[in-house]
Amino acid sequence: MSWLYLILGGFLEIGWSYYLNESQGFTKLFPSVMAIVLIAFSFMLLEKAMKELGIGVSYAVFTGIGTAGIALIGMVFLGESISIGKIFFLSLLLVGMVGLKMSETGKEGSEQ
């Protein structure tokens, strides 16, 4: 269940990043409210995931999903530039998240 919380929290991070941009410095009400609500829920889910998965992997995956997701949305839907370098480094980010998970040893969350 912790992985589900983590992935869902990462997707909510994509949402709040988008709405934070759309709020134009918290001058637009609806995007501002959406950003704040999604921030709260995404961090609540991150906290739930960290209880079992630990802070290192949880935060890396959480921010990785958010970073990759919002970068892809920017390139595909918001007119940001697309380059081989961006695609390469987003792929590297994904490999790093998978590598962190695969390099774990022992029982998850045993350091608590």
Automatic annotation (TrEMBL):
It is a multi-pass membrane protein. Its main location: membrane. Keywords: Cell membrane, Membrane, Transmembrane, Transmembrane helix, Transport. It holds the Pfam family Multi_Drug_Res. Belongs to the drug/metabolite transporter (DMT) superfamily. Small multidrug resistance (SMR) (TC 2.A.7.1) family. The chain crosses the membrane at residues 29-46, 53-77, 83-100. This is Quaternary ammonium compound-resistance protein SugE. It is found in: Cell membrane. InterPro entries: EmrE-like, Small_drug/metabolite_transptr, Small_multidrug_res.
